[in-house]
Specification:
This protein has five helices and six strands. The radius of gyration is 15 Å and the shape is globular. Strands 1, 2, 3, 4, 5 and 6 form a six-stranded parallel sheet that branches. The protein has helices at residues 14-26, 52-57, 92-99, 122-129, 147-157, and strands at 4-8, 29-32, 78-84, 107-113, 134-135, 139-140. Residues 10-16, 44, 46, 53, 84-88, 113-117 line the site of flavin mononucleotide.
């Protein structure tokens, strides 16, 4: 039996809710990927091409700083990484997260929430940033997903 971590970034709370349910469903530890500089609602305005999120997502090299750190990541067999879809992919802060650790020997399982888009190429992007990780294909959930559904999905990958 492995040890599981659910690490998530959530700007509006939906991914946080799903992450808490997943952690409780599979007995995982929970870790919030907190930006050093929190996103304001103006930052999140996707209709403004000059908003912080638009600028970051337009730059593949953008790496927003993370305020928190996991000291014992090597203890985990599986790290579930949750995020909201931004512009059809993982937010840049997830790229920062993937580059921040040595994931060798760890299975990384992406999952997301969104307004309707699928997880897209997020898994491939994440794999490219953490070459030692075994990144498996991820899934999108709605905020109302049940613990039971999450458990069933997680059991297929752990
Ligand atoms: C900057 C930004 C970009 C977004 N881009 C997409 C998108 O491409 N496709 C989509 O379905 N939803 C998109 N959304 C909606 C979020 O993915 C969705 O509301 C998500 O559940 C929010 O999760 P959170 O509350 O954990 O932050 C976007 C939201 C923001 C703020």
């Amino acid at each position: 039996m492995g040890k599981f971590l659910v690490a998530f970034f959530s700007a509006g709370g939906v991914t946080k809710q799903v992450s808490s349910k997943l952690a409780s469903a599979i007995g995982a530890d929970l870790f919030e990927i907190e930006p050093e500089q929190k996103y304001t609602s103006a930052d999140l305005n996707w209709q403004d091409k000059n908003s912080r999120s638009s600028v970051e997502m337009n730059d593949k090299n953008s790496r927003p700083a993370i305020a928190s750190h996991i000291d014992n990541i090597s203890e985990y067999s599986h790290v579930f990484v949750g995020f909201p879809v931004w512009w059809y992919r993982e937010p840049s802060i997830i790229d920062t997260f993937m580059e921040s650790y040595d994931f060798s020997g760890i299975t990384v399982v992406p999952f997301c929430t969104s307004g309707g888009s699928g997880i897209g190429n997020s898994g491939e992007n994440m794999k490219a940033l953490a070459k030692d990780a075994n990144v498996i294909s991820g899934r999108r959930f709605t905020g109302s997903v049940s613990e039971g559904e999450l458990k069933e999905w997680a059991n297929e990958v752990i």
